[in-house]
Structures are given as C-alpha cells and as structure tokens.
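Extended Data, panel c. Modelled sequence:
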Amino acid sequence: YQTVDVTGSPEVRATATAKATVAAFAASEGQGHPRIVELEKTAEGFGFNVMGGKEQKCPIYISRIIPGGYADRHGGLRRGDQLISVNGETLEDANHERAVDLLKGAQGTIKLIVKYSPKILEEMEYRFEHTKSFKRGGRASARH
C-alpha cells in the first residue's frame, strides 16, 4: 500500500486515516472497491458464468471465467466479482433470471460495476454443494 500525506485539520486527517484503514481491512479480507468493467459482446458471448440471486438469498457473482473466452482475454473480471449493476441497472436485489436476462439481452458494449468479494462466493458455493448433497439423500460432511 502507498502512504499518502494528508494535510488539513485534525478532523480531515482522522477521516482520511479511518477511510484508509477500512480500505486496507477490506483488501486484506479479499474485498475490493467497486470498479467499472466494459466488455464487448461477441458471437461467443461474454465468456463468464454467474450464480446467486435474491431467491438464493445472496448477491449475483461471477462463478466462472471461461478459459480462452472473451472475459478471460480481456482480463477485467475475476471469479468472485460481485455484479452490482449491468448498464446502470442494479442487481443488488435481483433474482438470478433477471441477471441472466440483462446479460443475454445486452448488445455491443456492456458496462458492469463489480466488486471483488471471493469469501462470499466461497460461502455460496459451499451452501450450494451442501444443499445439492442433501437433496440427493447423501450426508453432508462438516466444512473444515
């Protein structure tokens, strides 16, 4: 991390220090600040998969970047990115189907706002696998 010299009143310095501390903590926990990623829709699509949604009581996340696909070649997205919005439309309370419809219906350049949150994705995947195992009648093992 880069150190920034902040001048001003004690209140301004304290606020800057608090914000930097929160950002450093978030980064250490694997969470990043929201960022904008623009992708061109190609004949192969965007080259990523999503999971989650309101019906699953979790945000929409990028669960897979398809190797060699457009998103992989572009390099702007990561597995574990939370999709906050697609072309200005929020996904914060959206169900999975709505997110997929927005992505599939997009033409040309798509503007995504994303935030890297891999720990939440790991929890979602664990819940999904645990539920799948339970529905098949198998015993779910404890997470270590």
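The longest strand covers residues 58-65. This feature is highlighted in the accompanying rendering.
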